[in-house]
Amino acid sequence: MSKIDLNDVMFETMVIHAGQEPDKGTGALSTPIFQTSTFCFETVEEGAAKFSKEIPGYVYSRGGNPTNRALELKCAALEGGEDCVATASGMGAIGAVLLGLVKTGDHIVCGDTIYGGTSVVMRTNMPDLGIDVTFVDTTKPEEVEKAINEKTKVIYFETVTNPTLKLADIEEIAKIAKKHGVKLVVDNTFSPPPILSPLKLGADFVIHSVTKYINGHGDVIGGVIIGPKDDIAVIRGNYVTKICGTPPSPFNSYLVMRGMKTLPIRVREHCKNAMEMAEYLEKSEYVKTVYYPGLKSHPQHELAKKMLNGMYTGMIAFELKDDVKGLSAFEAGKKFLNNLKIASIAVSLGDPDTLIEHPASMTHASVPPESRLEVGITDGLIRLSVGLENVKDLIKDFEQSFAKL
Ligand code: LCS
Asked: What is the pLDDT of residues 325-350, one digit of tens each?
């Protein structure tokens, strides 16, 4: 048993130690990778008792595995939730939490700006199952309340939206959710703790694509759902383990835990670099608009100051001016991306490497064009995941690419 009282230590200490204790068999400090499909029983009686949950223990890695469990306990502690179930991807987490909370005939109120994959789930998969979805601008809590009807079971949104960096007042929307007996599920992928802790503001469930900042090294696809113990047990048993069958591999869980030990340090540095990049872009003669919650020009800067713990994420969206040397914003954007040397043209985010992409043709290509435009995902919009390189080098890279327009 760990001697540390996790409630009595600071965030950085908690993230390193939560969920991970020296291995009981060997004393290994680093949680071993239990790369096994199945677990042996001494007797048939012991197996039967573990299957019926009369005694605790692992039986088969789809239903539970010690390395995966360590990751789950670490993520539950990270978000301050009762329990967590890990999944093979962020989409696995979104699918499992929704299947756990809504049934045919139910209704979801969903933020209008969400990752393209989530958009397909909400626009196609949910309606195919007979579940209605209403999209709302979650920057306006009153719009969220207006969209609730007697069939609404879930309000779902991204805490900081992909790709336009809009914010929702979680505390206000949580009050509305409670008033109407609706569960609030938020995707906190863009703003993990120490930036934002949605459960503390009243959300019922948090999901993450741990592929991003939580693992933070660009070498894993993974997800987690954090929420009340009893609900997580149902989501795990019925959906992650059964119909979806999407637990992570123990090796991936090991990598994510390894990444999490430096999460606070990395996140602070990502945010510091992003703030500098955002200020640089805002001053650039080639740039029309910069979307970054840390800038005074962001329409929700005051909410960002209140909600985001002094760190404004490592993500920026921006649009180049039309008619730079006769090019449209879209053509200029393409040329600009193609001439960068340090920033890689790639989707995903939260990696040590700076990544830059074009949402309209990549991450949000599956969103209908008119819906993209309604929420500001123009053809000229560029999304930047600011990495951990020296920011002076990133600015130099941008300068040389702008000069080639
Ligand atoms: N939620 C958000 C906010 C995301 O950005 C993504 C993926 C997911 C969920 C799904 O997670 P995954 O299954 O990929 O682990 N976002 C991506 C993006 O913006 N670029 O590439 C993937």
From this structure: 999 999 999 999 999 999 999 999 99
Which amino acid residue places its CA nearest to atom 20 of ligand 1? Answer: 348
What's at 150, amino acid-wise? Answer: E
d(CA 136, CA 349): 25
- Residue 144 located in a structural domain: yes
Atom of ligand 1 nearest to the CA of 212: 15
Residues 217 and 129 in one domain: yes
List ligand 1's pocket residues with C-beta within 6 A.
89-91, 115, 117-118, 158, 162, 187, 189, 209, 211, 221, 223, 347-349, 363
Q: Among 205, 234, 260, identify where a domain stops.
A: 260
Residue whose CA is at the smallest distance from ligand 1 atom 11: 90
Let me know if residue 60 belongs to a domain: yes
Q: Produce one character per residue of 377-395: b if its CB has 16 or more CB atoms within 10 Å, e if not.
A: bbbbbbbbbbbbeebeebb
Tokens of 2: 């760990």
Domain count, the chain: 2
Q: For residue 381, how many C-alpha atoms fall within 13 Å in the half-sphere facing its CB?
A: 22
The terminus-to-terminus CA distance of the chain in angstroms comes to 60
Q: Which domain holds residue 391?
A: 263-403
The rounded Å distance from CA 209 to ligand 1 centre is 6
The two structure tokens encoding residue 53: 């949950």
Pair (216, 281) in one structural domain: no
Q: Does residue 105 sit in the same domain as residue 34?
A: yes
Rounded CA-CA distance 165/365 in Å is 18
Q: How many angstroms is it from 352 CA to the middle of ligand 1?
A: 16
* 53 and 162 assigned to the same domain: yes
Residue 109 lies in a domain: yes
Q: Which tens digit of pLDDT belongs to each residue from 240-258? A: 999 999 999 999 999 999 9
Q: What is the pLDDT of residue 2?
A: 72
pLDDT at 1: 58
Evaluate whether 132 touches 108 at the Cβ level (below 8 Å).
Answer: yes
Take atom 12 of ligand 1 and give the residue whose Cα is closest.
Answer: 90
Residues 244 and 276 both lie in one domain = no
